[in-house]
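Entry type: protein chain
Record version: 2
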Amino acid sequence: MTMGTVAAIGAWTSVSGLALAGVDVLVAEDPEAVRQAWQGLPGTVGLVILTASAARALGAAVAEPEPSRPLTVVMP
């Protein structure tokens, strides 16, 4: 079994430091950029870290569990 990669979506000031831990950082400063980043996630991503504002921009897109979707967590 292979582990998926970890990605973070959100504003630069909130997610940039995660790159130091090997997280794929997807900077998205506005709701449309968040939605584009979410849609463009590669299939290898197993965990997505979202800022609170990114989670709000995605709304129900991440709220409902689905086997084909990566595990998603929201930063406090």
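Comment: The mean pLDDT is 91.
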